[in-house]
Model the fold of this input.
Amino acid sequence: MVTNNWLIVLCIEIVLCLQIIYFFNSVFGKSAQKHKRWMYFIVFGVFGYVYFSVPVSFVISSILALVIIFSLAQAYNVEITTKIIFTVLYGVLMSIVNFISTYFIYLLNSVDLNSLDPVDEQKQLLLFKSNLFSFTMMFAVIQIIRLIAKRRSFSLHYRYYILLILIPIISIYQLNVLTSYNEMNIHYFLSAIGFLIINVMIIYIFDTIIDKFQFKHENSQLQQQMDYQDANYEKTVHSFKSIKGIIHDTNQQFLYIEECIKRNELAAALEHIRTTLNKVEGAYQRVNTGHLVIDALVTNTLNIGQANGIRIDTKLNLYSPEISIDRYDLCVVLGNMLDNAIEASKHVKIAEDRYVVIKIFSHESALFIHIHNHMENEVAHLRSQKPNPENHGIGLTNIARLCDKYGGHMTIETKQKTFHNMVMLPF
Done:
């Protein structure tokens, strides 16, 4: 503790504050900083002054130190478990570095800093030097951490956080035991360095675990999305087979009509023509733009809408049935847009508000898709309303990816409980 010298306390607080911010910027990233942070700096300043100037027991001092660090961690938009992990880790790293700096001060001055008289100005100066040396070492440690941290923000199961936090806690306990029951010698120094390396490597281990689970999660999402797109593509294949079947059956009907005309049975021929037309009308696609993907997916959406009491209006106008966009890619884009609209409409409680408007048109150089639907609630953040939203949120990402592939763009607007999704894909 530094007493009777507010200037020294202020200097130490400023340096410590900058160092903690530098540490959290390294592991959380500057982009995670909150906009209004001044209140956390005030809390840090008050508790920091108490910590450095008021003599308290070791336990209270340790708790106070963690509160000081955690107050600055609150200035970042990250999960509370991650804040706790890195608060404890910083506290442990700083403690280990303090042990190492104490060893050097002891070695150079043959003075035990644990027995310093807080009133003795000369010994307070040694303590101040020890703190400065600790800060210098800590900046070097943070720079190493900065090189190995990737600042990932994937959420782990709580058991992994518990396992990771155990290592710093055990390390600080072992180092305190080492200090209490052994003299300061080269073995003490090497042990402290070893604990420092172990705890720095915790960040690498933490990042590697997150990387592994994030990859596994994304792979699972992609697999489900691929299955969904395969189902959409299967609809187009089924549609094509249905059209071939209709053509084949119609050819058979023409043979019968031809025979009726040869026998001059015109009434029977006319009746059979009407019957055939009715069957073709019922069996053929409800949408007929000439493009198989658009016809199959929009027709399927009309059927789903009818089954779920969702009114669907379509405005389709293609410049040409030939669209220079890969059919699989178009299945991904249009299938996701239609699926999102239908899923959102299913949650609308008022029957009159369950509607989807599908607008698809093209000119000689681009395809435009605009789908809008009503929502049950206003939304500030886009989130899937499907039963397992974590498995479906990648849909919009895939649409955006394909827009980038073709040099197009996607626009999303939400206003007055209405969701608008607009996509432009140039040929």
Summary: The two ends are 71 Å apart (CA to CA). Residues 6-208 form one domain. Residues 245 and 251 are 10 Å apart (CA to CA).
